[in-house]
Amino acid sequence: MAATRTRSRYVPDRGLTTRMVTTMFLIGLLYVVFVGVLLALVRGAWPLILLIAAGLFVAQFWFSDKIAAHGMGAREVTPEQAPALHGAVDRVCALADMPKPRVALAESDVPNAFATGRGRRTALVCVTTGLLRRLEPEELEGVLAHELSHIAHRDVAVMTIASFLGVLAGLLTRISLYGGLGRAGRNNGNAALAMALIPLVSAAVYVIGFLLTRLLSRYRELAADRAAALLTGKPSALAAALTKVTGEMARIPTRDLRRAEPYNAFWFAPAFSSRESLARLLASHPPLERRLEQLARISAGLSRP
């Protein structure tokens, strides 16, 4: 029996690995402290808090890929239903020497793509019908190489878990406020102080977690661009796809962009329904100019003898 492949031909990225480990450690520490504060403030409800926190985390780990795929409208397709898409995925997987993930299509005019999954066995790569219509074959392969690098580097799972912990903080805060403190307020004079402190602590945890995931998200997109360009040897094709996709976003109806916006951390290129500078500043992706500059440097390096 052939040995299971654990590595692909994607260039290892130590910077990405270090950032993923650091981000997960810091976010994990942050939420341990957060749950500890909740348990200290709401002593009567600690079994419920621990049970719900553990249950939600396990559910998110096992079902996060399905939740994300469903939210973005992904529908798994066979080679007969989407021969061009499957052919492009097959070529990139052969080039990368990695197992082929499940392939999906999303009925949307927003030109984009994403990858999700806890690991290579549950991995899924999806493109929108709008992307298929607009890109040339080499450009599509560049986008797919970018998305498959997320699977190879396992940063998809890290981002999914890290992003969910912000939701967990909000849920635990509601449980504490409406579950434990309501009863404690009748017997404990400190309940009012706890009710004032818990939302503040929760907000601080959310902001810190948000900033940590944003920093990781921006770096991982640059890492995926770099890995895809080096794998295919055609950084210009990926640059052309980036330019085309970003330019087409301006022509997409605002209603469609707003539907895609909540999942920006997963998309190949961010979907913005507005051009506000604050939204761009807190974006999950680095600026287009920075991505194109990196690809231009790689192209110049590959052209040298």
Q: Would you count the extended β strands for me? A: 4
Tally the helices.
11
Category by helix and strand content:
mainly alpha
Order of strands in the sheet with the most strands? 1-2-4-3
**Estimated share of beta-strand residues:** 5-15%
Helix and strand string, N-terminal first? HHEHEEEHHHHHHHH
The largest pleated sheet is described as:
4 strands, mixed
CATH class of the largest domain: Alpha Beta
CATH superfamily of the largest domain: Metalloproteases ("zincins"), catalytic domain
Named at the architecture level, the CATH assignment of the largest domain is 2-Layer Sandwich
Helix content: 55-70%
Give the CATH topology of the largest domain.
Answer: Zincin-like
The geometry reads as elongated
Descriptive keywords:
305 residues; mainly alpha; 4-stranded mixed β-sheet; cell membrane; Protease HtpX homolog
Structural description of this entry:
The chain is mainly alpha-helical and 305 residues long. The chain folds into two domains: 14-69 and 155-215, no CATH class; 76-152 and 218-303, Metalloproteases ("zincins"), catalytic domain (Zincin-like, 2-Layer Sandwich). 68% of the residues lie in helices and 6% in strands. It contains eleven helices and four strands, in the order ααβαβββαααααααα. Strands 1-2-4-3 form a four-stranded mixed sheet, with helices on both faces. Helix 1 runs antiparallel to helix 7 (191-232). The radius of gyration is 21 Å and the shape is elongated.
